[in-house]
Structures are given as C-alpha cells and as structure tokens.
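Good day; I would like, with your permission, to put a structural problem before you. I would ask you to consider whether the tokens describe a fold that such a sequence might reasonably adopt. The full record is reproduced below for your convenience:
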Amino acid sequence: MPSIDVSRSRFRLGDDHVVVLCCLATGDAPPDEMALAHSELRERGLINQAGELSSLLLPLLTTMVRPVVAISLEVAGRQGKLHHGMFIGEDHVVTHETWPGQAESEYACVEPSMLLWALANMVNLRRVDSLHDARATVVETTVGTLDAGLSALEAMSLTASGREDRDHIRNALAAGGTLDGPPLSVFTDMISELRSSWRMTAAWQRWPGEPDSVTARALAVWDCGPLGYWHRELPAEPVEVGQVGPDSPMKLCRVAAKQVWDMIAETLPPDDGM
C-alpha cells in the first residue's frame, strides 16, 4: 500500500502507483490494469474522489514528469539488484530508493544544495583506510573471469566468510587463466568482501525539446568493504547492451572515497551544459 510521511515529504510508492500518478499529472487516463493502484492511492488520500492529486504530491510529480537531469543508480549485491535514482528539476530535487525484497520505493524531496550528499548516501560512501594496503591497486582480467567469480559468490550464503568459500571463489577465478599470483589473491579477497557494485548514470538534454541532444555520463564502482572502493575503468561507461562479452577486458583501480565523491560530482552536467 502507498503511504506518506508529511513531516519529511516522503512517499512509499510501487511502480504501478507511480504510473497512475504520472498519468494524472499529465492529464492522461491511467491504464485499466492499474485500477487497483488507483484505488489504493485514493484510499490513502493521495487522490480525491474527483481524481485530483493531493497538493502534497505536486513538487514530487512536477519534478518527475519534467526533470532537467535524471540520474539512475543500479546496485547489485548478495541480496539481488536494487534501483535507486534522482530527478533534478528547476525548483526541486526528488530521490527514490528501493529496499531489498520490497515492492515499494521511497520517494522524497531533498534540499537541492544537498543533492551530492544524497547521492553519496545512496551508495553508502564512507571513509576507509584500505589504501594503506600495499598489495595490488589495479586488477586486470576479463569479463568472463569476473562472471565466474561472481557466480561463485552467489553460491555463498549472505554472511559467508569462511576459508572454504574463499577457496571456491579463488578456484573459479583461476580457471579463467587470466589471473595468478598477487592479483589473483587480491581479486579473490575483493569478491569475497564485495558489498555491492553500482553504476550511476546521469542524463540530460543539452537543448531542451531536442531529443537528439541527450547527453549521458556514467560511473561504475565496486564497494569491497575493508578493501575499499574500486573504479571500473574497463569496460568504460556508459556500456551499451551487447557491447561487452566474456573476452572483453576488465580493469578495476582502487580509489579513495574522496575520489569517488569527485567522480559522482563529475557525472552531473556543468552549470552551462544543460
């Protein structure tokens, strides 16, 4: 069921609820198959009996329907895939965040001056001391070897951390034949400690009203817990569907949290780029 937190301008909405609200905001009739979502929104007071939207929704919907910049954050981890994001409008900024195993996402209006902090919070950006580790700071392999290691990780339980599990990951990586010695050891530990891998993409129109002027920037990072953050330089973002195969090169470079912050900021358009 949809819900609202008036004190913090937060809404919990499923995908169907969002479709219905956006249709009403643009003057379109919601699809018939969204009747249940329509009824739930009305029951919660987000739509009145006349089909009019609650005024509390206006900042949210005006921003989502006509964003200046749309940011998509795809997160993969042991609990599956999550999709977060942000819409930056002329006057408001709206975030949306999912929760593992839940159908509804939380939508909230945030202070525009805090949008970078909001994005950093979505990826759990924090300080780590792992850069004092003297081992390899660059790992180069192939996408196929990476997939083998991630498949081994998926076979582990959520809290697994035993030696046997690490050996299983190491053997899966070694079978690809692209890693040995210290890089193999480091990559084994990276995958064993992997909290999440995420890809952030920002898109905007350089000239509003001209679809061909859409510009996008993207960033891909691994959060390996005590082993810190690793920027995926190859395959370089943005990656198109079908562009990468098992033999494609994979390159991960360790970076400090401050560098990740700067890269997040650099995915956004310059003040004169919209």
Notes: The chain is about 30% helix and 25% strand. The chain has two domains: 3-122, 130-267. Residues 143-154 form the longest helix (12 residues). Residues 122 and 200 are 10 Å apart (CA to CA).
